[in-house]
Amino acid sequence: MEDEAPNRNRAILAAVHLQDADESAFQDALTELGRLAKTLGLTVLDTVIQKRPSIHAASYLGTGKVEELKAIVAEHDAGLVLVNDEISPSQARNLEKETGARVMDRTAVILEIFHRHARSKIARAQVEIVRLKYMAPRLREQGDGGERQQGGIGGKGAGESKMELDHRKIRDRIAELTEEIEHLEKDAQTQRARRQQLNRVAFVGYTNAGKSTLMRALTGSDVLVADKLFATLDTTVRALVPETFPRILISDTVGFIDNLPHGLVASFKSTLDEAHEASLLLHVVDCSDRSWRRQYGVTRDVLADIGADKVPRIMVFNKLDAVGELELQAKTALALLSEWPDAIVMSATEPADVKQLYNAIQAFFKRDLVEGEILVPYSRQNLRANIFSECEVIEEKYNDAGVVFRVRAHPATLERLQTGAEDAG
Fold first, then answer.
1. pTM for this model (two decimals)
2. Through-space distance between the first and last CA atoms of the chain, rounded to whole angstroms
């Protein structure tokens, strides 16, 4: 509405600091909420914090703090209150009635970001399903007018039937989207199956750790790079550049965040499958963020949840340039390498650092290579493409039977290509 325009981008943060909660973790979560707000293009003008033994059952904050929040909203002409936790529909409704501002809890903020950033059909469908499931129990709380109120005892008023209609529409839409996702996932599985024999690397890490910047540096691709949370929601797959033989494919995945709504983790199974099915994970950590250890733990736990914790990985501590002066950068790198001797400590903006990561990826895939020969009959030279894409070709020799390729490849790849060439003969 027009009268909302002046204040729709002004927000006040509201948070309950539970008395037995860790102070550092609480501050990190609150800072992260501010960054989420920034990602939505909102201006955070103030913060209201209340320390309590538990969250107020009716209004999240206690009565006195609600009054304080109301006054601050009015003072700043703010149109939004962003709550640091997930709250119930009734808690949100009560806060809205008291403050006159729209209330979004942490889950709603994340869902809105995902909704805005999703680009592919499958990502948009997955996000919409989670948003609809989030909205369904909140329908009863949204209306102020009579048409959303229940009818009399034992009867069905217009409001109740309207709400039932809304719920039915949501159920139907979820069913429609679920069917669409099933078809899209079949296509995605087919594409992954085609890449099954190739060397595959997946970036994983907390949101805004710099995965997309590294992806662009290693592949020369035009993936979106932005200083925003959840800038990447769709899986992007590109070949490592300069190209290697055999080729190495790099995939970027959705970033993780603490207290990510469970439905979103489940719904983004397709992008997380890239991590699960990869030969190597690059676990990217923003070492300039003071809460990087917590972020590292969140990513590690999610990887365990999806069964990807057994996949080999290289720790990549990124954004070293953002730590501070050169002396502090050197101390930080030394401390990290003393704890993770095999890690890469780097800045994605430094070509020498990117080259170091490139070499580490190459070295990982070369460690188990063996040399061997593949005899390809002259009648089946169409097999050359597979050999060059999956092997490092050292030499080609010609004899009466065909072309002999001396190659370096993984044992299983070599055996499969040798068998295929023999069958072709």
1. 0.74
2. 73
